[in-house]
Q: What sequence folds into this?
């Protein structure tokens, strides 16, 4: 079991309708790893994640999860297979309460829902007092936590996070990164798309830089942080 | 010989009504085919045109407003203007919103128009409707027309009377039909020109990618209102012609909101929306099927009635008429699913759908 | 005071307005749910209401003729509800589902077609003429009449109006329980909030769609039967006549807000009836012939002023 790669994307070509956005992407996430994808806006980072979920047209290439091919799977089936996905935007049900959002995340779960909800409130203590509030009324940071907690309600075999810290205050950003690390330590492999490249690479075992729908650079988190080109492009001009 | 005339007259009447529907379908094509606007109030706009024309051209009557004695073309023009004004009002309110809202509003406005026509009895004679609407060409045989200029320049009343008596009673039918077909042709030509003009290309751009058109700084709302108004004006024109064909119009039966609107939609979708030729072809085709099926069903029922003498066919006839609607409705569903582009698809390539 | 003003106002305007409002409310619930969950304005909704009335009538006649058991319309409505739901689900399966990923207007068009198909079908089967639903004149409830008369505020309510109002309240409570306490109900709200997120949360949207037709069909038949009870007759055009007020109620309440639709329905029902009350002097405020235009007017004003409705519904 342990030898199987949690998520393996090989030579993936995919796009919206006829337009090809991804032109041969290779990414692998080993069990218990946190893998970060960074890259400029429009590079196709979200598109990679959506391909895994079966949300768009895969032209060629393979995607497998623990050795099982999942190309072209329907999104709800993908979730049943244990993919926990937090979209970049619109990632909570704004008119449902926090608890109801978590319950919706647990749609495919047969038992242990109440316990799992309690676990989530332990992981995100801020949400506990807001449990009966409508998700749409929360702050951006709290909404992001609801989104992550909701996604974790499935029996996750892997978690896909699309820019979880975008638009948040530094305080919340730090908190989100800390939680991501904790989730990973609890045994869930993570594929993380981030704009805050430095922080993401710091917690990542491995990183990929995507440019224009193709792999540009890859390496361990620390390698990438030390890479001059990467540093100039994504880590601010301090270096 | 008589039979030949009979068949010809039937063909002429098919062409006449088919032509009127073709005008309606062309009007709808501007709205739906060009601009993607979903109008289910066609009967309402046709009713405005029909009543405007009727009230402006009928002889004085104690039942309704009238006696203006306006020239027929002027009345047709007014019919178009009024229909366009109502469309403008609706367009201002709902064209910004998604098409569903426009659909609801147009069905609503058709109802309001019907209410108005039914209730303003002083003006419209209410539910009893308006009779003796002058029909172009045939109207020449009316005394009030041949005793006035310009007809009176050529002959006196008696002369005209004798002249018309010498003609077969159906003399005007080919002329009326030809006039309608000419109108269809002229509208068709105008629309083809418009479609190829910058205006038409912009309409297509808007319909196919509204966001991109917005981004390109095009005034999308304004263009769509234009298409909606022009389409409604054409429908008003069709209404005016229809009122001539029928000579008697009333708010409920003539402009049955669902039946007329529905037939026009079937015609446009079957023919091919976005394609003016398709719209015209669809109108004639569906109208022919529609009226032929009536004859077919009725004669079938007659044979049936002969066999079982105790049967009351008139009851069956109305029921069969409704069954015909069911069949036409299912036909629309079939075409929508299997041939969404109709018999004559629009020639422009349409970008494929995008998931999510 | 009661004699000169209240008696007439309450008995002849307010109560009929409430009753009509209940009927609109029930119909609008289905419209607003379909609009927000399936994302289209279902033009066939009124026709399902109407055919529900005809099914109920048939059940009543059959039971009476075959077994000699006269059924109350509310009992006879049970098989009608099942048939109507089956009809909704079949129509969805064969006529709406093929358009799920097509532009929304295609399915609106399909529903417009179904509106005519269903109505013409009813006209072909049951005939185009009116049918008597419940014969006789509805007498006011004696108990209420005497009780209220004893405090000099006589209220005349026939039993049918009690059934309608009480039935609406019960359905409302049941709906509220369904939407806030059950998994499927919460799922309906979730899909209405965001179908894309629902899909990637593993929610089986097709199950939710079926549930929506069940709820919508149930409320539609209830509305149809209540309307038939109120009018005491059936007409093939009654569904179409309800369509505009129901759309107006759904828009007024905000699309995707079932309780907004209820408020909207009550407002429109009351507005229609109260619009003919002689507010200024002797004549009715607007000519009774234009009563049915009130809903349209309210809807148009709403679309101009606040298209998302009173309760901030979805705007597409
Ligand atoms: N729904 C869509 N339809 C068509 N093109 C899209 C869609 N979403 C994104 N794109 C295009 O795909 C490319 C990659 O987008 P995305 O994966 O969102 O980038 P990133 O997440 O890296 O910023 C962009 O050029 C974008 O314009
Ligand atoms: Mg992105």
A:
């Amino acid at each position: 079991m342990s030898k199987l790669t949690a998520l393996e994307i090989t030579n993936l070509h995919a796009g919206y309708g006829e337009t090809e956005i991804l032109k041969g992407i290779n990414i692998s996430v080993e069990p218990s790893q946190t893998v970060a994808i960074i890259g400029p806006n429009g590079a196709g980072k979200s598109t990679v994640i959506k391909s895994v979920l079966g949300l768009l047209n895969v032209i060629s290439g393979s995607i497998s999860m623990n050795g099982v091919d999942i190309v072209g799977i329907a999104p709800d089936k993908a979730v049943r297979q244990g993919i926990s996905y937090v979209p970049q935007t619109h990632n909570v049900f704004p008119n449902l309460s926090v608890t109801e959002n978590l319950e919706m995340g647990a749609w495919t779960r047969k038992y242990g829902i109440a316990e799992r909800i309690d676990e989530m409130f332990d992981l995100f203590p801020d949400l506990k007092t807001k449990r009966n509030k409508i998700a749409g009324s929360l702050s951006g940071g709290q909404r992001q936590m609801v989104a992550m907690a909701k996604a974790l309600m499935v029996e996750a075999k892997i978690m896909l996070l699309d820019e979880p810290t975008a638009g948040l205050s530094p305080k919340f950003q730090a908190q989100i990164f800390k939680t991501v690390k904790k989730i990973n330590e609890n045994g869930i492999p993570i594929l993380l798309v981030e704009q805050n490249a430095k922080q993401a690479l710091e917690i990542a075992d491995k990183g990929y830089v995507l440019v224009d729908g193709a792999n540009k650079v890859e390496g361990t988190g620390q390698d990438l942080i030390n890479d001059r080109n990467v540093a100039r492009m994504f880590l601010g001009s301090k270096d | 010989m008589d039979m030949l005339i009979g068949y010809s007259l039937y063909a002429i009447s098919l062409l006449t009504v088919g032509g009127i529907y073709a005008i309606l379908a062309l009007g709808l094509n501007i709205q739906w085919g060009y601009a993607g606007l979903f109008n289910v109030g066609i009967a309402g706009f046709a009713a405005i045109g029909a009543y405007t024309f009727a009230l402006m051209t009928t002889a004085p009557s104690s039942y309704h407003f009238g006696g203006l004695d306006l020239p027929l073309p002027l009345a047709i023009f007014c019919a178009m203007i009024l229909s366009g004004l109502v469309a403008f009002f609706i367009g201002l309110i709902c064209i910004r919103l998604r098409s569903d809202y426009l659909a609801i509003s147009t069905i609503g406005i058709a109802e309001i128009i019907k209410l108005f026509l039914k209730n303003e009895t002083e003006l419209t004679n209410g539910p009893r409707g308006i009779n003796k609407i002058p029909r172009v060409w045939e109207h020449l045989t009316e005394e009030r027309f041949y005793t006035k200029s310009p007809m009176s320049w050529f002959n006196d009343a008696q002369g005209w009377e004798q002249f018309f008596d010498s003609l077969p009673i159906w003399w005007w039918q080919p002329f009326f039909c030809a006039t309608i077909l000419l109108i269809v042709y002229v509208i068709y030509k105008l629309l083809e020109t418009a479609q190829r003009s910058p205006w038409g290309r912009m309409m297509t751009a808007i319909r196919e990618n509204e966001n991109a058109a917005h981004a390109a700084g095009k005034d999308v709302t304004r263009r769509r209102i234009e298409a909606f108004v022009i389409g409604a004006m054409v429908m008003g024109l069709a209404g005016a012609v229809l009122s001539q064909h029928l000579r008697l119009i009333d708010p409920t039966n003539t402009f049955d909101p669902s039946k007329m609107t529905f037939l026009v939609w079937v015609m446009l979708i079957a023919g091919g929306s976005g394609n003016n030729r398709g719209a015209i072809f669809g109108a004639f085709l569906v109208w022919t099927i529609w009226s032929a099926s009536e004859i077919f069903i009725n004669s079938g029922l007659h044979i049936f009635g002969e066999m079982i003498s105790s049967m009351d066919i008139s009851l069956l006839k109305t029921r069969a008429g409704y069954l015909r609607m069911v069949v036409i409705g299912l036909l629309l569903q079939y075409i929508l699913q299997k041939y969404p582009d109709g018999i004559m698809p629009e020639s422009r390539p349409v970008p494929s759908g995008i998931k999510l | 005071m009661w004699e000169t003003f209240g008696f007439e106002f309450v008995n002849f305007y307010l109560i009929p307005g409430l009753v009509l409002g209940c009927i609109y409310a029930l119909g609008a619930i289905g419209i607003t749910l379909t609009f927000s969950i399936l994302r289209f304005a279902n033009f066939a909704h009124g026709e399902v209401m109407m055919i529900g009335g005809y099914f109920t009538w048939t059940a009543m006649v059959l039971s009476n003729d075959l077994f000699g058991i006269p059924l109350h319309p509310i009992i006879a409505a049970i098989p009608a509800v099942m048939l109507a739901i089956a009809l909704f689900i079949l129509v969805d399966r064969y006529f709406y589902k093929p358009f799920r990923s097509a532009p929304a207007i295609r399915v609106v068009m399909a529903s417009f077609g179904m509106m005519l198909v269903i109505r013409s079908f009813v006209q072909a089967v049951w005939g185009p003429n009116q049918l008597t639903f419940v014969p006789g004149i509805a007498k006011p409830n004696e108990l209420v009449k005497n009780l209220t008369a004893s405090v000099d505020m006589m209220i005349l309510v026939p039993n049918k109006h009690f059934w309608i109002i009480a039935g609406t309240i019960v359905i409302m409570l049941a709906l509220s329980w369904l939407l806030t306490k059950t998994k499927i109900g919460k799922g309906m709200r979730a899909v209405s909030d965001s179908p894309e997120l629902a899909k990637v949360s593993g929610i089986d949207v097709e199950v939710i769609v079926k549930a929506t037709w069940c709820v919508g069909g149930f409320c539609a038949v209830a509305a149809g039967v209540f309307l038939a009870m109120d009018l005491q007759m059936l007409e093939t055009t009654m569904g179409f006549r309800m369509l505009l007020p129901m759309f107006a109620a759904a828009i007024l309440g905000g699309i995707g807000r079932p309780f907004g639709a209820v408020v909207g329905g009550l407002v429109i029902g009351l507005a229609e009836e109260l619009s003919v009350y002689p507010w200024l002097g002797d004549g009715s405020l607007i000519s009774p012939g234009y009563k049915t235009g009130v809903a349209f007017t309210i809807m148009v004003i709403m679309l101009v002023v606040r298209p998302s409705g009173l309760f901030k519904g979805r705007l597409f």
Residues 2-253 of chain B form one domain. Chain B has one domain: 2-253. The interface with chain A takes residues 351-356 of chain B (CB under 8 Å). Residues 349-356 of chain B have pLDDT under 50 and may be disordered.
